[in-house]
Amino acid sequence: MSDNSANFSLTPVARLESDYPDKFGIPRQPGLASAARGRLVMLPPFDDPLALRGLEGFSHLWLTFIFHQTSERWSPLVRPPRLGGNAKIGVFASRSTHRPNRLGLSLVELVAVHTRPEVYLELRGHDLVDDTPVVDIKPYLPWADTRPDARAGFAPTAPACYPVEFSADAEAQLAERRDRDSLRKLIEQVLAQDPRPAYRKGQESRRYGVRLRDLDVRFQAIEDPRHGLVMRVFEL
Ligand code: SAM
């Protein structure tokens, strides 16, 4: 007999080591920064390689995770940044982190499955902050999970992208890095989303820092007469 009043507890099966040390700057959905790397380290007793057998045949995975850096308070209405941060919609009509049970869902690319000596999944394109607890992993099935003609409410298309340019200093710092190619891509993809808070978007002179990998990437949004808004990186 089912008991509708039952409470359920969830145990993390893995934790993500992420290119994003902080929440600020993380794109608002997976896939927007395909260069974002992650190591999903399986936790005991789920670090049994048998539990991952066959996973290497899939290119993408669904991760169900806990928004562990969001407070447990939730309200029926939220203000999606996509609507400028003022208009309110129902929490269940949103992908907001401020929701009951704090469960997140992300589609990520599976690059490799490692079982020795550590059991972990190498991922790309996620939107999760470092140390996020993951409570389930499932393979993505394109024939069942893709609906190209679906309606997408107030978010019908991917968000706008802005050009990103690097100062001479930033270029020189980048050139010294061993991970320069993937790092450049990550910086470009993250800043192209314009991570500034919605309420600050008028204040072009302000400088911001986004932490990516081991760096604090300093940037400014500049109104360029020819190209419109441009994200300029001036220091890494
Ligand atoms: N794709 C997921 C979903 O739809 O459930 C997440 C969408 S949510 C709008 C994306 C934002 O969650 C990111 O921009 C990041 O700032 C935030 N975030 C990522 N990991 C988090 C965590 N562990 N705790 C709290 N916030 C997190």
Automatic annotation (TrEMBL):
Top-level taxon: Bacteria
CDD domains xref list: UPF0066 (cd09281)
Keyword S-adenosyl-L-methionine: yes
PROSITE patterns attached to this UniProt entry: TSAA_1, TSAA_2
InterPro entries membership: TrmO-like_N, TrmO_C, UPF0066_cons_site, YaeB-like, YaeB-like_sf, YaeB_N_sf
Protein keywords: Methyltransferase, S-adenosyl-L-methionine, Transferase
Family affiliation: Belongs to the tRNA methyltransferase O family.
Name listed for the protein in its UniProt record: tRNA (N6-threonylcarbamoyladenosine(37)-N6)-methyltransferase TrmO
UniProt gene name: tsaA
